[in-house]
Design a protein that fits this description.
The protein has a single domain, classed as Orthogonal Bundle (Cytochrome p450), CATH 1.10.630. The strands form three sheets. It has a five-stranded mixed sheet, covered by helices on one side. It has a three-stranded antiparallel sheet with strand order 4-10-9. It is built from 17 helices and ten strands. By secondary structure, the chain is of the alpha+beta class. Helix 6 crosses helix 8, helix 10 packs across helix 12 and helix 13 packs across helix 17. The termini are far apart. The protein is 49% helix and 7% strand. A hairpin with a 2-residue loop joins strand 6 and strand 7. This is Cytochrome P450. It holds the Pfam family p450. Keywords: Heme, Iron, Metal-binding, Monooxygenase, Oxidoreductase. InterPro entries: Cyt_P450, Cyt_P450_B, Cyt_P450_CS, Cyt_P450_sf.
């Protein structure tokens, strides 16, 4: 049923008095009534907000829906993100065989489930070293600084063939990308610096290739002239930034969620079957949904969603948080309701990685990283505890990716 009232401002703020892991209550209200409603975003435009699990999947796989940021009516998250994506556009925000399918195919072979599983021992070693350093340091420790950021940053840099880059600088520049306070000039400058970094690495690897992703892009794509240095640099930038920022936020937020759900934590800590950790990761991805500002799309033809007609040129925001808490998809009577964390719940059909042809390319790497970190952290530090009240944790309500700026822990 079409909602006829004024379009509420989006994104809605989280309610500090409620659980910090829950999406805003207004999103659940929309999901449980209309399912779809117009909202007003930062630039005054009024895209459609889609909140139900089945509708989100339908929209993300519909041929009338485009991910191309150059289409009129695309609902950008902010002026800064619009500027950054315009400067460093990749297949992630494009459509079609040439702009999306072929570049994605070039990278997809690097991120197969089999290849990512083969990295499990390497990820285990990186995780153990990070925990060793944390245990050798002072208490309380910031889990974000000591574990959540180092593990995925080291892994993506190693995969790219850039182990010696300044990790802290890459992390700082990525923060500029996702901060609500960033200006278009800020994000453009950050993009330029990272593009220069990736471009320089491609030049080096074209002359002296190694066994890494950037070397293969240089020798198989750049040297034969199949793709330009600029295009490959943009692809590398996407992998470098997205490859650590999302996993880092999931590690910090997932740790906080498990520490406040000790019965669920115990199931992971005490399990000998690796399938327990694998299932727990899927449930944490569903429950937390760190892409809390929604996936953005635009209609290139008229289509109908939940009884509402979306016209050509109208923007669409897919609200993954309420979609991942939709009882129609995640309440089967055998498990806790979808607003609760239940790591025994079959949750692989969550939307945390999106859906359809633009589904997250690096999801298999993220899965293995999270499985290793969560199964290792609580086994090695069984007395791990928050060193601050949950209400004092500085959560990333000011970022397009949800997480924690800092998470103080002790043991």
């Amino acid at each position: 049923m079409l909602h006829t009232g004024d379009a509420p401002a989006y994104p809605m703020p989280r309610d500090a008095a409620r659980c910090p892991f829950d999406p805003p209550a207004e999103l659940a209200e929309i999901r449980d009534t209309d399912g779809i409603r117009r909202v007003q975003i930062w630039d005054g435009s009024r895209p459609w907000l889609v909140t139900r699990h089945a509708d989100i999947r339908a929209v993300l796989s519909h041929p009338a829906i485009s991910a191309d940021i150059d289409n009129e009516g695309y609902p950008h998250q902010s002026a800064a993100i619009r500027a950054r994506r315009s400067r460093a556009k990749t297949f992630f925000t494009a459509d079609g065989v040439e702009e999306h399918d072929e570049p994605r195919r070039v990278l997809a072979r690097e991120f197969t489930a089999k290849r990512m599983q083969s990295l499990r021992e390497v990820i285990q070693g990186v995780t153990d070293r990070a925990i060793d350093e944390m245990l050798a340091g002072e208490k309380p420790a910031d889990l974000v600084e000591k574990l959540a950021l180092p593990v995925p940053t080291v892994m993506i840099c190693d995969l790219l063939g850039a182990p010696d880059v300044d990790h802290a600088r890459v992390q700082d520049l990525t923060k500029v990308f996702v901060a609500a306070s960033s200006t278009p000039a800020d994000t453009t400058a950050a993009a330029e610096e990272l593009l220069d970094l990736i471009g320089g690495l491609l030049d080096e690897k074209a002359q002296a290739p190694g066994d890494d992703l950037l070397s293969r892009l240089a020798t198989e794509q750049l040297v034969p002239g199949l793709r330009t240095r600029e295009e490959l640099s943009r692809m590398g930038l996407l992998l470098l930034t997205a490859g650590h920022e999302t996993s880092a936020n999931m590690i910090a937020l997932g740790t906080a969620a498990l520490l406040t759900n000790p019965d669920q934590l115990a199931l992971i800590r005490d399990a000998e079957d690796p399938a327990v950790a694998a299932g727990a990761v899927e449930e944490l991805l569903r429950y937390l949904t760190i892409v809390h500002s929604g996936l953005r799309r635009v209609a290139i033809e008229d289509l109908e969603v939940a009884g509402t007609t979306i016209r050509r040129g109208e923007g669409v925001i897919l609200a993954l948080g309420p979609g991942n808490r939709d009882a129609a998809a995640f309440a089967d009577g055998e498990h806790a309701g979808p607003d609760s964390l239940d790591i025994t719940r079959p949750a692989r059909h969550h939307l945390a990685f999106g859906f359809g042809v633009h589904q997250c390319l690096g999801q298999q790497l993220a899965r293995v990283e999270l499985q290793v970190v969560f199964s290792t952290l609580f086994r090695r530090i069984p007395t791990l505890a928050l060193a601050q009240p949950l209400t004092d944790v500085p959560f990333k309500t000011d970022m397009s990716i949800y997480g924690a700026h800092e998470l103080l822990v002790t043991w």
